[in-house]
Amino acid sequence: MTDANLNSPRMAGRANLADARASEFIVRCYDRDAWSEADQAELDAWLAESSANRTAFIRLKSAWLRANRLDALRPMSQRSGRSAQTPYQPGIKLAAVVTLLALLTGSGWFLSRPTIQTFSTKVGERSHIQLSDGTRIELTTDTVLRVATDGTYRKAWLDKGEAFFDVVHNNRHPFELQALNYRIVDLGTEFSVRRDTGRIRVTVLKGSVRVGTSDIRVRNNAVRMIAGDVAIADSRSISVTRKSTAEVADALGWRNGVLVFRYAPLAEVAAEFNRYNAIKLVIDDRQAAKEIISARLQATDVAAFARMAHDFMGLQVRKYGDEIHISR
Question: Cα(312)–Cα(328) distance, rounded to whole angstroms?
């Protein structure tokens, strides 16, 4: 590969994104108490994606550890320039390390770094976003999405929740979404992605997407989906099923503020309602949990659901504080 290729805007954009992502992992790993197995799996998958990712992580980790060793050699009153009364901010040391690396290597990391924006919604909220390239994104309840764009490289990370993407397609610069250790690449499409604990669900409304992971332990680890396909991807496999137009519309009912259920057990319905409401539904017995219902309800109208359970299903409904308990 020539020097011109290495210094191209696209390659520079990828390197900048790798540095930014490596920085996030280092802060999470070394400056926070809670580092879970899911965090480790996410890091392993990201490192496996490319040598650029591994290089960025090793380089910044080494600089971070050197900074820690230097900090330990200073008098207590001088460490990191903070007194006993100053609360520690974990991002400060990493920012200093990255800035130093940029100055020493002449890479201009901060000057050319893509803009990374974070969008989020609270429980019960929905939000609409339009990116500079015309791509439209809808976020549903309790969702966190990060988006990086630099004109040549478009990438987003779904950290939590669910989002719908109406992507302006660009063959030269495809839109890419990362969720868990999976990468969803736009092939000219409208699609939604929901991230749950340990798995994602991808629903394609129009066009097609490619879903894959570099984790060789995952069976069927790369698939191409078209309109009407729904994929469930977890740490073991990707499974794709075909859905009717009506079923896809039901799954995306949240875009209109409604939840649609067809022959769903009450426990599943309650769990879905709980995503959208501060008042939680609690099913107190197994018999009630297995009751099957079909309904179309406003996502944030938990009281309407409780009335339906009482008036039409004959269930006992009791409210205790921020919980509604349902039983036979």
Answer: 13
Assigned token pair, 247 = 């079923």
Element of type H or E holding 134: none
- Do 236 and 213 contact (CB within 8 A), yes or no? no
289 vs 145, 181, 283, 316, 317, CA distance in Å?
Answer: 33, 32, 6, 12, 13
Neighbours of 9 (CB within 10 A): 12
Cα separation of 296 and 260, whole Å?
A: 4
The 3-state DSSP class for residue 28 equals helix
Domains of the chain (ranges; CATH) run: 3-112 (no CATH), 115-248 (2.60.120.1440), 257-327 (3.55.50.30)
Burial of 180 (0-12, 13-18, 19+ CB in 10 A): buried
Which has the closest alpha carbon to 152: 16, 3, 4? Answer: 16
Strands 323-327 and 154-166: unpaired
Which ranges constitute the DSSP H helices of the chain? 3-6, 9-31, 37-49, 51-73, 90-105, 109-112, 245-251, 266-276, 286-289, 302-311
What is the DSSP code string of 34-80? ---HHHHHHHHHHHHH-HHHHHHHHHHHHHHHHHHHHHHHS-GGGGG
116-133, pLDDT tens digit by residue? Answer: 889 999 999 999 999 988
Report how far residue 173's alpha carbon sits from residue 28's, in angstroms, rounded to the nearest whole number.
30
Claim: this prediction has a pTM higher than 0.85:
no
Mean pLDDT of 307-326: 92
d(CA 143, CA 24): 19
